Amino acid sequence: MRIRKLSLLALAALAACTAGVSLASSHREAPFITTQPKVDGADFYLFNSYEAGRGGFVTMIANYLPLQDPYGGPNYFSLDPNALYEIHIDNNGDAAEDVTLQFRFKNTLNNGGAGITLDIGPDGARKKVAIPLRNAGGITGAAADPVSYREEYEMFIVRGDRRTGKREQITMAGGGTTFTKPIDYIGEKSLGNAAAYDAYAGKYVYGINVPGCATPGKVFVGQRQDPFPVSLGTIFDLVNAPAAVITSESNAAAFGAGQIANKNVTSLAVEMPTGCLTAASGEKVIGGWTTASLRQARVLNGKPDSGLQASEKAGGAWTQVSRLGMPLVNEVVIGLKDKDKFNASKPKDDAANFADYVTHPTLPALIQVLFGAQAPTNFPRTDLMTAFLTGLPTVNRPGNITALGTGGPLAEMLRLNTGIAATPASAQNSLGVVAGDAAGFPNGRRLGDDVVDVSLRVAMGALCTLTGASDALKVGCKPADAPAGAVEFVDGARTKATDYRTAFPYVNTPLPGAKNF
Q1: What is the pTM of this model?
Q2: Is the pLDDT of residue 237 over 80?
Q3: Which candidate, 122, 182, 402, 417, has a CA 20 to 30 Å from the CA of 172?
């Protein structure tokens, strides 16, 4: 029973190790970010678009502000106007951004800064008084909707260094530079049923003209149902689930979509022509990650005036406080003392700052101590370094990296081979590359990819046990190095591509704060 439980823990804990610097999601993963939920990156997805007719496009989805309770009023979940949200693309294998998409938000009170007001009091003593709610009636997307304030944003593209490169504004396909974010799904009385909200939110999918790109792309920013299947509570309670469930592929969906399937999140989804992201050299592999930054200084106003941002003033240099590429890295791979450091870091510095967490991962050892099951014995863990820090040599390793540690830096990010055609949603395998679906994780990440199960297996040495046609994926280890390498670890939470939308923005309609009686 002790050994069975270990397999269970290995399943979740090792998912962390497999990424050594790269695992699945990032919900409240570091001490500082727990104080700044609006800039907490939850998940990052990067894949060749598989919507019909969208071959030749890449989709990027950066999810922020995790663990949103649908009923979280009266303010709900606007993003931070004092923050800079970014998606970075490295297209030449040097672990530095070559293309960056920037989002800046602005929340503006309607009615000249008064918001929605009601006439209160009898004739002769009547006053217009601002209501305490986001809306005073039904919302359809019309200009006259009774909403207290609107959430807007601007987009920019930066080529080269994110701060010193060439920065240009992205515009709507029909003209204009100010995009609008749909209001969160307050509930069915305010916004109708799921179909009605979906139609409403669909009005905020914009075609975009990107400087330097001949073909328009798309953008959507808004609340969505959290798509990440994971049993967070189970994992962090020392993998508190029956061993028989955790060690068999037949139980992959024993817990359905997991605990956070009843939460919402805010998605920044962008679809761009592949050629606008790849290098002119012809390199097909791109690396991607998302960050959020705040101004270095903040002054609080002890006597705020009226307004949405009246309580603080921010200034100074942009300071990165959140980073996410590969999934669960900072949650279960990076040591507690370095979690804030990781969120402030760049991929190009990973080898110097965090290599030990990958070459000598702690989770397998912890599992062995707690449950008696032997962790992989090959050190350094070159199999993990290859899978998560360079890309797999036959799948998504940039051409400049000729061998482990040669030609390019060890760096944690999602890597996508844009030359591998997308697999249609109906044919996708949730285990991605491990199961023969070369268009799936860790070759990028799609919504239906079970990154936890894949990462767990790789962390426990799955790459060491591959045989036959898969030998090319093995790096520096053999079956004897991984006694548990063939175990089918699962965390019991799984979804598939067809559980989500099969067209942009792919992520499902959010859950409502209340249903109609």
Answers
A1: 0.93
A2: no
A3: 417
